[in-house]
């Protein structure tokens, strides 16, 4: 097979001594769901590309199709071209299967502007045009939960090896992580088979809540890895009769799950971190980047908190930010400067939830920092103390967040007007669908009392 010469070493190692049976040709839709086709390896070898309708980016999380007001609904085909650098194993399958993320082009060979991976590439290219190379390091939080086959029933933690459900408020407990050792072992094994590197795994504050840290690197590559990680973590959990969920707030009275993004920027020519001066002090660029986050993050909350459930995470004192303040080593601020040496100086955006599409959330966060570097404005004074006392600037509902995104002309210029139009249209449809649902709380407290 000619394409084997183009594969990463991890994929070749996975196939060693085995016959490749199938290739999954996938892209991420607006929600981050893997869409595409699976085909026999022999057929994949003969095709340079294949087609999918553009309607995959017009489908809501609840399965409805949304009309794009600026284009008739004719479902023209897009051209999907394999990016062989992303080829990786699907180690949970019974046969020998590879996954390959594809570039999404129109029939003229141009990048489709609403494809999430293309949105991120667009933002990264803006940095490169200025001689900058953005670096990110994401953190992934998720819950392991008991199988929940009835949506009307609350989500519960799973049973661990002791035969008991996960204990609450056991952050950083090694015994809490050990409760789900077999699942963690499979996550490590799947990641190794896929050539994905894990920086560390720990118990977070919620019952059955895990945090996984990834190494820093190229934004597109890291977003690809997070796209893969979500799938492999779900598969590892299913092997042990439980679910992994990336919902922002799956369990009442428990903390939510975040996708914190650590940002730094290096000079392409020198490789030096532009957030630090030669003497090791904080640079003006560092403060400008922070100002960009402060000034523009509110307009991108609809991307960092993409569902109605996302806003349940923004709760005071539940280890989630409710502000756009910044501070050094202060986890109550939405923007945190971790302890580091000058070469690793960075800013952590704590606003995104783990329910995001990683391509879009990283793109939106980078877009804010890019505008800050271009505008060269100063941030507000560092917040010292408990920033939960400063709940300023975060929209409280998906509808109000979409209003801000639709009115943010600078952000639309960076992310792309076509993308913002389609994204907000789909999200408004999801919000309207949610408003048609009557919740148990309403039936309990309003049915007979009002």
Automatic annotation (TrEMBL):
Ligase in keyword set: yes
Give GO BP annotations, semicolon-separated: glutamine biosynthetic process; polyamine catabolic process
Q: What cofactors are annotated for this protein? A: Mg(2+)
Domain (GS catalytic): give its ranges. Answer: 116-450
> PROSITE patterns recorded for this chain?
GLNA_ATP, GS_CATALYTIC
| Alphabetical UniProt keywords | Ligase, Magnesium
Q: Does the keyword Magnesium apply?
A: yes
Superkingdom of origin organism? Bacteria
Q: Name one GO molecular function term.
A: glutamine synthetase activity
- UniProt-listed Pfam families: Gln-synt_C
Similarity field: Belongs to the glutamine synthetase family.
Name of the protein in its database record: L-glutamine synthetase
State the organism of origin.
Answer: Celeribacter persicus
């Amino acid at each position: 097979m000619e394409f084997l010469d183009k594969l990463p070493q991890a994929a070749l190692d996975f196939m060693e001594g085995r016959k490749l049976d199938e290739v999954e040709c996938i892209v991420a839709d607006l929600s981050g769901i893997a869409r595409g086709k699976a085909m026999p390896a022999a057929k994949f070898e003969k095709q340079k590309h294949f087609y999918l309708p553009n309607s995959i980016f017009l489908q809501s999380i609840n399965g409805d199709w949304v009309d794009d007001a600026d284009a008739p609904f004719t479902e023209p085909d897009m051209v999907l071209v394999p990016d062989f650098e992303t080829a990786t194993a699907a180690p949970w399958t019974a046969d020998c299967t590879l996954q390959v993320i594809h570039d999404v082009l129109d029939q003229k060979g141009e990048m489709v502007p609403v494809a999430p991976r293309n949105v991120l590439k667009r933002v990264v290219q803006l940095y490169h045009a200025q001689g900058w190379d953005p670096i990110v390091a994401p953190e992934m939080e998720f819950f392991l939960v008991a199988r929940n086959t009835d949506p009307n029933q609350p989500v519960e933690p799973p049973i661990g090896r002791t035969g008991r459900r996960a204990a609450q408020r056991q952050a950083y407990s090694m015994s809490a992580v050990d409760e789900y050792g077999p699942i963690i072992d499979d996550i490590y094994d799947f990641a190794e088979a896929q050539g994905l590197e894990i920086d560390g795994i720990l118990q977070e504050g919620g019952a059955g809540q895990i945090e996984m840290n990834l190494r820093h690197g190229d934004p597109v590559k890291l977003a690809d890895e997070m796209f893969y990680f979500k799938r492999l973590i779900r598969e590892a959990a299913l092997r042990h009769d439980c679910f992994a969920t990336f919902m922002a707030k799956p369990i009442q009275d428990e903390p939510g799950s975040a996708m914190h993004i650590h940002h730094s920027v290096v000079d392409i020519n020198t490789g030096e971190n532009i957030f630090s001066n030669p003497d090791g002090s904080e640079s003006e660029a560092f403060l400008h980047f922070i100002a960009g986050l402060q000034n523009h993050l509110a307009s991108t909350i609809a991307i960092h908190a993409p569902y109605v459930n996302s806003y349940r995470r923004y709760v005071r004192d539940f280890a989630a930010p409710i502000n756009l303040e910044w501070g050094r080593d202060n986890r109550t601020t939405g923007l945190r400067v971790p302890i580091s040496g000058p070469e690793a100086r960075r800013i952590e955006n704590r606003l995104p939830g783990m329910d995001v599409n990683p391509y879009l959330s990283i793109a939106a966060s980078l877009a804010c920092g890019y505008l800050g570097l271009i505008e060269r404005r100063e941030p507000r004074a560092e917040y010292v103390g408990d920033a939960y006392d400063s709940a300023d600037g975060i929209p409280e509902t998906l509808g109000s967040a979409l209003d801000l995104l639709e009115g943010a002309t600078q952000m639309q210029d960076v992310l792309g007007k076509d993308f913002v139009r389609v994204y907000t249209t789909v999200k408004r449809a999801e919000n309207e669908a949610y408003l048609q649902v009557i919740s148990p709380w309403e039936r309990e407290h309003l049915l007979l009392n009002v």
